[in-house]
Amino acid sequence: MDEIVRQAMAKWPNVPHCYGWLALDRRGQWRMRDEQAQTEGTAGDPIRHTALIAFIARNYTSDDAGRWYFQNGPQRVYVSLAYAPFVVRLTWDATANDGRGAPVLTDQLGKTFVPQACLLDEDGSVAFVGTKAEGEANAPLALLHDHDIDLLTQVSDLAQAFEVAETADNTADAKAAVRLHWCNGDSGDSLPLATVHAGTLPQTYGFERDPQAPAD
């Protein structure tokens, strides 16, 4: 968090929170939702200003209730999430793995996202479970940008893993044995893979998709 933000919070500790005006879409774009967008239920306008995007990224965090927000000076601007708190892009690092290459995930904040598991929902959306930070109750969840699903199928055995997951015995041991293998052959890593329902993810991973202002 920016030091100037910390100072503003200390100077004005009781500024009312803001709800509904900022959103994170399924492609990792921050969107400004004015009164008209909120009334009409539209996505809002993408934020293009580079410095503002960087400012949001540096001051993006969550509260104890799993509501993600941008700390704008002394004010919390709560974020409506189209799917998850993070959206990742997939690239291929040809120099990793002793030249064999490796996939790299980068979130909308510009940070490397280290996956611990892969999820595939009922609509074909792919999400990754990250590493739980010290002191955090839940692991972070990131949606894979839909433009990168084709690349994922090229650098992993997503289709085969999904088929195994769909046909596995409905037991915990069988489901836990399903793996998504990265890279080619035996090189690289593998991740647990599970099929999920998108609507269950907020409760499972402890976040709110649409924070609401408390009733008066």
From TrEMBL:
<protein>
    <recommendedName>
        <fullName>DUF2946 domain-containing protein</fullName>
    </recommendedName>
</protein>
<dbReference type="InterPro" id="IPR021332">
    <property type="entry name" value="DUF2944"/>
</dbReference>
<dbReference type="Pfam" id="PF11161">
    <property type="entry name" value="DUF2944"/>
</dbReference>
